[in-house]
User: What shape does this take?
Amino acid sequence: MKLPFFFFVFSSFHLLASNSFSQNKVTLNIQKGSLESIMSTIEEQTPYSFVFNNDELNIQDKFDINVIDENIDRTLGLLFHSTHITYTIKNKHIVLSKAKDQNAKFTISGVVKDAVNGESLFGATVLLKGTSIGNTTNEYGFYSITAPEGNYTITISYIGFTTFERTINLSSNQKLDIELKEDAAELDEVVITAEESKKVDLSTPQMSMAKLSTRDIKQIPVVLGEVDLIKSIQLLPGVTNAGEGASGFNVRGGAEDQNLILLDEAIIYNASHLFGFFSVFNADAIKDVTLYKGGIPARFGGRASSVLDIRQKDGNSKEFGLTGGIGSVSSRLAAEGPLFKDKGSFLMAGRASYVDIFLALANQSSRAGFYDLNLKTNYEIDGKNKLYLSGYLGHDNFNVAGAGFTNAYGNLSGNLRWNHIFNNKLFSNTSLIYSRYNYNLELEGMDWSSDISNYNMRYDFEYYASDRLTFDFGVNGVYYKFNPGRINPLNATSDINPEKLDNQFALEAGLYAGLEHKVSGKLTAQYGLRFSYFNRLGKQTLNNYANNLPVVYNEELGIYERTEPISNTDYGKGKSIATFNNLEPRFALSYQLNEKSSVKASYNRMAQYLHLISNTASATPLDVWTPSGKFIDPQIADQYAVGYFRNFSENMFSIEAEAYYKTIDNRVDYINGAELIAQNTIETEILTGEARAYGLEFLLRKNLGDFTGWVAYTLSKSQQRTPGGAAGGTGINNGKWYNSNWDRTHDFSFTGSYELTEKWRFGANMVFQTGRPVTYPNGQFLYNGLSVATYSERNADRLPAYHRLDLSATLTPQKNKNRKWQGEWVFGIYNAYNRRNAASISFGQNQKTGATEATRTAIFGIVPSATYNFKF
Assistant: This one.
């Protein structure tokens, strides 16, 4: 009955159906009969035999058929009606086959890694060539693409790596793990093409985002030769800082506390070493950096301005290796290699400064230094499950001899993650995270300590529904404990009384869902919605004030005064003090005008429930975090952005131009003369206002060639307004809009790298910024023989414009090529023309003449440096 299917490829010509069918009648009355039995009965009643492929048909499938003296054509038509089985007649043979489903789609999925060290690659582009079907890899290198059945060429590209191409027959679901290489090669069906450039992704709706690799960061000249992630992102449009040597950064006119900084998903509260001279991120331990300035995905929440997502290396799973460097003020060493019989890997990276040595050589008894340690390991249980364990420890210490001043602070974090692949379309990640920031100060017989710690749980999913729809959804919860401060005397004779500020507790939770929809070949949309919930918890006793006003305006004196409490309320452990919840919609569109350009637009709302209590231009370690609660509402930010993006000259150049407008409600401001340090009733020092920021950003990149780099320019405005509200009075600056501390009208930067030969590479960056706003005295009067200064409106003046030029030269010995030990020398000059940029300007009275004098303070002049980097 059964003959091999290939036999009929060479069968004779078709018989005329009308002649054949009319001569053969069939009678069948079968209920729930197998296809095998029905074929046997037909073969008994006719001269025909059936031929089919066992791999295509299941002959045990059940059918109903009832015909009386019917021709074979009609019989077969009734039998296979509403099925995917077709038939043809060839020389007394009825050939059955499965009809091709034109709507059938299959999925190809896998993980993309670096061929050299096995590191997963985040953001690699995976595309079916000649179609619009594609996707990018997630944070763990996973991708999934669904397409109609057929033959395709799959291409996988990633910045700094050669593009991978392979022809595939997509007739079933497939798993394809790929390792990308830096060196050109040819392997069987694999084609390796030229290095992928940093061209703009025109199709994705994601905008207001910047990605930097450690290779990019290491090519940028920095102060004292210390590679610095935070200083590097400040060279991008829309990103500034509060001044030279200041910690942190400001994004699109937002405050420092409005940036969510994540290291392997753990929250970092203070990202600086030595009060802002260096960042806490060791470039040898970092894999990639992504900064979201707007269009922030729904999975992120808790901050009003930006998200800085930093991922540590997984560790080399191929072979053991060492990397490190010896610099002017610090040295670093990283070790990595395979573990668990090549089913895992590890990374250990340490860094320490030796500023103390130079101070000692200069006969200085003061001390300053820092160290940090990065750890990470992973274990692949099987093809669908993988565990990660990562951690960070950093510490700073600063002591001024003779002043009785000692300062220490640091970060600690840990994260246990579980990746699980349910199937070729559904990926999940579960994370248990801990982070802590602590601060200690010894001054004038007093010991002050404070800290903030949190426990965070995340459960995130990504579902690749089809070639047009990708979902991501999940839930997370964070439990906070705030220790605002504890004061203890350092000796028994001290006049200082021990005091402990109230601990504060809070729970923050978020539920989110996002969808990326390829509406057409040119239009792609992203939709997102986040629901956030915040509960300020006891144990704490809070004051109650008349009319619920901790601050009121004294009309007679013309100042804001602190209100005396009329009673207090004791909130027991775990009891709710105040709750908040917000819906945070996100929306983005991308419309591709042609193969070279596109326009994009986005909107996002962010709710921020934590506040950094500081009235300085740049946050200091002494500043403390406080949660929203009875007297402080969460900040609500709405941001709109629109942009034009273009690649040209065969992707050698790219342009990104964006305009944005952002508003922030419930922005905390401070009354004149606010006392923030060791303040247990912070509500008596603040007023609530609003903020706004708007601007134009321009970024021109040169992506290919011996010379690469970018030019960035931002024209922007950042303002605050704080009316008196229910507290009365005119508020700050008579309730008018005034410049925020981080307003920079013009911000220009140039960054370039030129590879002269294989031996020499040169780098440069130039920066120009409008001076930051300050408040200057505008007069003085005598009171009881004392000269008392009067001041202009808050932030009505500015420091002089800031500008500098940095240069670097990298020497790579040619002998590196043929040995495992590879080294390079990096020579740098920070502030090459010795510009004395003003960090501050203070005013005082000349003791001899009595005239008022301005004193300009500059932190850096010209700073040369030399660093030796090595790799083994």
Summary: Residues 724 and 731 are 4 Å apart (CA to CA). The chain has three domains: 5-98, 105-195, 306-871. The helical segments are 17-22, 35-45, 72-79, 214-218, 229-233, 355-361.
